[in-house]
Amino acid sequence: MSKNSDDLPIVYAKDRILEGLKKSQVLIISGETGSGKSTLVPLILHENGFSGNNIIAVTQPRRVAAISLAKYVSLMTDDTLGGLIGFAVRFHSKFGRKTKIKFVTDGVLLREAMEDPLLSNYSVIVIDEAHERSIRSDVLLGVCKLCLERRNIKIVIMSATLDIRGLVDFFPGAVTVSVPGRQHPISFYYLQEPQEDYIEAALITILQLNLTTKNGDILVFLPGQDDIEALHGLLNAKNALVTKTFNKKNKHADSEREKKLVFAKLGNKEFNTNLWKTLEITPLYAALPLEDQALVFQPTTKGHRKIILATNIAESSLTIPGVKYVVDSGLMKQKIFNSSSKVESLIIVDTCKAAAQQRAGRAAREGPGCCYRLYTREAFAKMRKQPLPEIQCTNVAHVYLELKIMGIDNPLEFELIDPPSKSLMLCAAMTLHRLDAITATGDLTDIGKCMAKIPLPPMLSRILLASIEFECISEVLSIIAMMSTDMALFQPESKDPSAARCRRNAQHPHGDHLTLLNFYNLYNDAPDKSKEVRRQLLDCMQSHPINIKNATSQSPENWFKIRQCICKANWMNTATLDSNKRQYKGLCSNEQMYIHPSSVLHGPGPLPQAIVYSECTSTKKMYMHTVSVIAPEWAAQTKR
Predict the structure, then answer these.
(1) Which family does the UniProt entry place this protein in (predicted)?
(2) Same fold for the domain at 3-179 and the one at 186-390?
């Protein structure tokens, strides 16, 4: 370990950690923010012989955390990344024969468990950030419990919250180690009254901080990408206006009108304009390309102030240097799946107390910090203590399929800390049966086995397999590769004018799937991530004894086959038009649904009689996304 780590609290717990692993196969470490768990525990284990002839796996819920931790720990050990320290995330990995510590996303390790349920390549499994209760982490904990039949494996579970009762109950006989955080003082500030417009409240807080404080970057927590883009635009406009207004060479810099625009809604307080620093605005959310996410770790330009606009991706694991102020909206986006309607709602909800404390802790990693909570003390008191486990509120069809592949005959009986409801699991089984992945008696089919090998949600992997029958594999590979990445192509023109122009050029009259195909084929600068996804999917498909054409056909006949393929595979996601109301009725859900405004089929003109869609989400209305025209009889023919 490096000398810089000598004063981290986890170092003083080293003996307790090693002693605990001698006594038990399972060790649970609760350590507050800044204790050094994520970076030093794997090194402590390796340096004390726990890697043996195998590898220590360290899981993270997010790709950016797995990669950044691997890079940081490799620097600590003065080793080249990919040597002693490696990483593996979806579509990107760097490790070799000498790798002894491998940082992975929990999804990557789960895919390994599908091939090897006892994870025999690993001597230690470290589950980090277990407090987040992500669906993948929760399933991995269940897999780890199965792995305990291997007497030579150790399981280390790390949580940033002190409430670990659920983990202790789930792993009887586990040894627990509590480690204090190296937390500097945090000053908290609350609103006196509730604020409806949290974006405006965040904007005002950022501007006030930039006009009243001398140094320190600002980390802002917002619910989602849309909010980040909205605030980004407002800050850019204000930044330009301030630069113009306080530019000493500008003859009109002292005009009252411009000053009023600068200080609008900032109150009557006198500000020292000499404190103003040019804002470097950096977004951080899961759909952002990895190279763009990495920008948050770059040093701030001298004389500037970095403003990081983030979702809850920045709550834990990541230490963003230079942050002294946190502005917390107190909100997050959560998916809620309705097993009756088969519709997933993406809603904005209050975060929990544990997450709010994690957010605040980001301000005090390097010294005293301040947290500005854009909610009242009363609102904080009413928040739930811990997050709602993701596995209890989302579609679990992919989990059901993964468990079947691992040899779990009845996934309803698989042990989980907080299992999903029976209705969610039965809905998953019904979905997989309709996708031909399992039989009516719950046995895996050959199609189901193939679907599980493809790193895609079941609905998409089924389309890919159907493309073999319809002889449109190459085209469908490109479409799904585009669907598997952040589809900026479907952003409104006001948000991304260049993407909107590209969409107009690639637009296909039969809908979004063929528009995505056109975009991929027409533009050499199709997203690199899409090309990477396509390459990996192609490798998966090469295991089938089929001939995959490199060239794609632009003939109407192939367009016809592609739409037929999507309809046959995803017939459950078909809907027919109620022409009197310009709305649709779902074939299976029987719900009233609308084409999302982002679709190329949305507009004032005549609507198609029947459509197939990739997913439906509920906000103010039930909206269908990635929509294509089909013949009404296609859905009727495939209904079962």
Answers:
(1) Belongs to the DEAD box helicase family. DEAH subfamily.
(2) yes
CA–CA separation, 389 and 385 (whole Å): 12
Burial class from Cβ neighbours inside 10 Å (0-12, 13-18, 19+) for residue 287 reads: middle
What residue has token string 């979905």? 431
Domain 186-390 carries which CATH code?
3.40.50.300
CA distance to 238, 292, 490, 496, per residue, from 493 (Å): 22, 22, 9, 5
- Enumerate the domain spans of the chain: 3-179, 186-390, 396-452, 454-638
Measured CA distances, 30 to 34, 59, 166, 253 (Å): 12, 16, 13, 54
**Helical pair 512-522 and 473-483, crossing angle rounded to 10 deg:** 100
Mean pLDDT computed over 115-120: 94
If we measure between CA atoms, which residue out of 94, 107, 92, 11 comes closest to residue 61?
107
Its pTM stands at: 0.86
pLDDT in tens, 39-58: 999 999 999 999 989 999 99
pLDDT digits (tens, 9 = 90+) for 56-101: 999 999 888 899 999 999 999 999 999 999 999 987 889 999 999 9
* Residues listed for the chain: 640
Integer Cα distance of 153 and 21 in angstroms: 10
Indicate the fold that domain 3-179 takes in CATH.
Answer: Rossmann fold (3.40.50)
| DSSP secondary structure string for all residues of 52-103 | TTSEEEEEESSHHHHHHHHHHHHHHTT--TTSSEEEEETTEEE--TT--EEE
Return the SS3 of 28.
strand
Residues whose CB is less than 8 angstroms from the CB of residue 197 and which lie 6 or more positions away in sequence, other chains included: none
